[in-house]
Amino acid sequence: MSDINFFQEEVSFQLSHPDILKGWISTIIQNAKQSFDTINFIYCSDNYLLEINKEYLDHDYYTDIITFDNKEDDDSALDADIFISIDRVKENATQLNLPFEQELHRVMVHGILHLLGHKDKTEEQKNEMRESEEASLSLLHI
């Protein structure tokens, strides 16, 4: 059975409309002709995510999201842990002059798109990722 879960680590955070977000994420995955077992979103502090970044990726800097793809092989259903820094999302939203929830949803779908095979290393890939984020966000109706 497919499951999408939301957790918090080192932050007091209440997600708005979790059931709508679960349906939205499921739709994005289904539209990509993929299936999933478990997707865990873990909302955390900057420092919590920094420690994960250092320990697992050998990076010593803040980031808004780290996605761990836990699936067994290329043919199996998606299985992932997606860590999102609430501190970083708030700061990004302020800098971009966007509502917090809009930026949070963009970061959430960014992690899902990575699981679906989207990359964002080159300028062309970044542009394609942004287009896919926008297309995915247009499917969310809250």
Task: Compile the SSE list and pairings.
Layout: E1 3-9, H1 18-31, E2 36-44, H2 46-57, E3 65-69, E4 78-85, H3 86-96, H4 100-115, H5 123-137
Parallel strand pairs: 1-2, 2-4
Antiparallel strand pairs: 3-4
Helix pairs in contact: 3-4, 4-5
Summarize the structure in words.
The chain is α/β, with parallel strands linked by helices. It has a single domain (3-137), classed as Metalloproteases ("zincins"), catalytic domain (Collagenase (Catalytic Domain), 3-Layer(aba) Sandwich), CATH 3.40.390. It contains 5 helices and 4 strands. It has helices spanning 18-31, 46-57, 86-96, 100-115, 123-137, and strands at residues 3-9, 36-44, 65-69, 78-85. A 4-stranded mixed sheet has the order 1-2-4-3, with helices on both faces. Strand 1 (3-9), helix 1 and strand 2 form a beta-alpha-beta unit. Helix 3 packs across helix 4 and helix 4 (100-115) packs across helix 5. The mean pLDDT is 95.
